[in-house]
């Protein structure tokens, strides 16, 4: 009887322990895509006042300018606290992000002009699963080539009050929204869920 009770307690402990080690969320990684994880605040954009984790998902053709997936990727900011955003705040964050990203990858390229990154973000109809949805454009310099590049952006804000976190999912591509790469980006963003 005591052995049976002890066995049950050990089994319950092991089940609880395995659940405690599961990540809080699932952020899909399609086959062939690249990934990167970064702690927040971001080293190259330290004035963005967020704490948590950034995860990036890169299309297979992300670094190849000859593909329709060039510079197309999705990233997640899983942020401590429950937040809502306004367009001007997101514009500021994305301007700082892409400015810092370029400068941190300068290597032998010339120093960029002041204000070389500009983001224009507006609130749009809220998509399923979102508390807020935004779209817009970002113009900056491509750190791979040093040349100007423009991106379309879609931003999903999802609040999880029960665990005190906010998911900011950002889809980026130089391709217009009706292009096929956006189906892939949307699938990754829409596949995000809590465990």
Question: Mind explaining what this structure looks like?
Answer:
The protein is an alpha+beta fold and 195 residues long. It has a single domain (28-194), classed as Protein Transport Mog1p, Chain A. The protein contains three helices and nine strands. The chain has helices spanning 2-20, 87-104, 181-190; strands at residues 25-26, 34-40, 52-58, 73-80, 118-124, 132-141, 148-160, 165-173, 193-194. A seven-stranded antiparallel β-sheet has the order 2-3-4-8-7-6-5, sandwiched between helices. A two-stranded antiparallel ribbon has the order 1-9. Strand 5 (118-124) and strand 6 (132-141) form a beta hairpin. The chain is globular.
Calculate Rg over CA atoms: 20 Å
Order of helices and strands: HEEEEHEEEEHE
CATH architecture: 3-Layer(aba) Sandwich
Strand order of the largest sheet: 2-3-4-8-7-6-5
The proportion of residues in beta strands is 25-35%
CATH topology: Protein Transport Mog1p, Chain A
Structure classification: alpha+beta
Major sheet details = 7 strands, antiparallel
- Global geometry: globular
Helical stretch tally = 3
Helical content (DSSP H or I, runs of 4+):
10-25%
Topology, number of strands: 9
**How far apart are the termini?**
36 Å
Number of folding domains?
A: 1
* Chain-averaged pLDDT: 91
Helix and strand topology:
Blueprint lengths: L1 H19 L4 E2 L7 E7 L11 E7 L14 E8 L6 H18 L13 E7 L7 E10 L6 E13 L4 E9 L7 H10 L2 E2 L1
Antiparallel strand pairs: 1-9, 2-3, 3-4, 4-8, 5-6, 6-7, 7-8
Question: What descriptors fit this protein?
Answer:
195 residues; 3 helices; seven-stranded antiparallel β-sheet; two-stranded antiparallel sheet; 24% helix
